[in-house]
Design a protein that fits this description.
The protein is mostly helical. The chain has 15 helices and no strands. It starts with 6 loop residues before the first helix and ends with a helix.
Amino acid sequence: LAASGDFINARENIQQAISKRDDIAEYYLLLGRIELKLDRQINAFHAYKSALDLDTANPEALQSVAELGLQIGRIKDSEDAVDRLLVLNPQLTQALLTKGFIELDRGEIETAKKIAQQILQINPRDEGGVILSARSTALAGKPDDAMKIVDDAAADIGRTDALNITALEISRAKGDLAGMKAMLSALSNKMPDNDVFAIDYANTLYKGGDTAAARNMLFRLLQKRSGDQATVSKIIDRWAEYDQEPLSKEQLEIVVSK
């Protein structure tokens, strides 16, 4: 069922199997994969944690607990899994990356930078290592150096979405509206269904004084997401902050008619 994309029924089936045999690590690994497909990170974490309890050296369970633990705030579990991975393979760059972000989360910027250097010594083109290096450099108060790290990597491996997002956050920290607009334009074009980037872009356009472009962007988004209350609320928040007359008479008639 999971292979065919029917993740809801696949989840129900594997849960039934677990209810009959709860001592098989592979069942929990499969459940973890399904939960991730359903975008349920907390459930996936618990499934992988159960797999790890049964198979303490399972690489998939260790890596998943490490990464998901960091995402959901289970830092102790994340760090424990990372340390066990690195005992098995000290040059495992994905585990080093998670460890680096744990250190960054703690404010240990220099430690994070050293881990980034370690990753890039193993693989100079490692995107995660580049991002960790850039973020730690920016947090050390050197945003221009951080942006150079991103730009140099982009010239080598291409302008990936992750590098663009990193450049966006560095530009935001610098208060560089032009840089933010460039990155948000690229991200919005690449991911036109991502409402977060669309609203962020409109917000940046308003801040930069490009009211007409911001209005057009939010109107198009409103047309697409008129039934999504959360998105509509965010659009209204932007208007309340920046724009007393965001819609023309014709646009207002279109919105009302829906």
